[in-house]
Automatic annotation (TrEMBL):
Organism: Gordonia caeni
Coiled coil ranges: none
Record-linked Pfam families: ABC2_membrane
This protein's name: Transport permease protein
Bilayer topology: Multi-pass membrane protein
Membrane-spanning intervals of the chain: 29-47, 67-85, 106-130, 142-163, 175-194, 233-251
Main subcellular location of this protein, as a coarse class: membrane
Highest taxon of the lineage: Bacteria
Family the entry assigns: Belongs to the ABC-2 integral membrane protein family.
Keyword field contains Membrane: yes
């Protein structure tokens, strides 16, 4: 087995191909990198006049820390699901899978390529939040960026998984309200989880975005890593691996 046909080699080749495709689509690149920063700017000015409650984090700090993870999650979910569907509908995926590449290596290449974009996206958004917008967290800023990247990779994995069940780009976009919005409602961003109805608390316990928000809140409030933080990171990693494995298992060569 040569390097070119090894799992590592085919994964690297897929990563390079996806990055080259993205480079040829500058509008998508600009949207991926700029829109989170624009949305974060709107969020900052939205909370700029809200009075601070004594003993509580500043209103912007309370919300923005979680938003830093939610933005790459949503963006990567949408872009990845549409990109993989387009590969299948144009016949590109069928041609690729006729080569010695495995489904796992193909999924790995997509994950690495979009994870790089998630990392750049998180770095830009966090740099803006910690710099001009003065976001303060008790934990490490580097840890915040790292968790945001992991959340973005989770969005990639779920996007790849959901693309297997869509036949058109419109159907892929419909997974956004079906998969992402319910998680936003029960993750504790709008209403503390303890104040949710009991059945919604049970629902939040099986939603990956719940643990993403909880991990970022731990970094916002705690100066040292806690056991809860490490548990949440492990759960996020587990969801990511499981979604990628299911995505590889359900990957179809083309859209019927």
């Amino acid at each position: 087995m040569t390097l070119a046909t090894s799992p590592l080699g085919t994964t690297g080749a897929t990563t390079l191909r996806v990055l080259q495709q993205l480079r040829a689509d500058p509008r998508t690149v600009v949207m991926l990198l700029a829109i989170p920063a624009v949305l974060l700017t709107l969020l900052y000015y939205m909370f700029s006049e809200v009075p601070r409650v004594p003993g509580q984090p500043a209103p912007f700090d309370r919300v923005a820390t979680a938003i830093l993870g939610i933005l790459p999650f949503v963006a990567m979910f949408l872009v990845t699901s549409i990109a993989m569907l387009r590969e299948r509908s144009t016949g590109t995926l069928e041609r690729i899978l006729s080569t010695p590449i495995s489904k796992g290596a193909l999924m790995g290449g997509y994950t690495v390529a979009f994870a790089l974009f998630a990392a750049v996206q998180a770095a830009i958004a966090c740099g803006l939040a910690f710099g001009p917008f003065g976001l303060t967290v008790a934990g490490s800023r580097g840890a915040v960026i790292g968790v945001c990247v992991l959340i973005g990779v989770l969005g990639v994995a779920l996007g790849l998984l959901c693309s297997a069940f869509a036949q058109t780009e419109f159907q892929a976009m419909q997974f956004m309200p079906a998969i992402v919005f319910p998680q936003l409602f029960v993750c504790g961003l709008f209403v503390p989880r303890a104040d949710l109805p009991t059945w919604m608390q049970y629902l939040s316990d099986v939603m990956p975005l719940t643990f993403a928000v909880q991990a970022l809140e731990q970094l916002r409030d705690q100066s040292q890593p806690t056991g809860l933080l490490w548990r949440d990171i492990a759960i996020l990693a587990g969801f990511t691996v499981a979604a990628l494995a299911l995505g590889a298992a359900t990957l179809r060569r083309r859209t019927d």
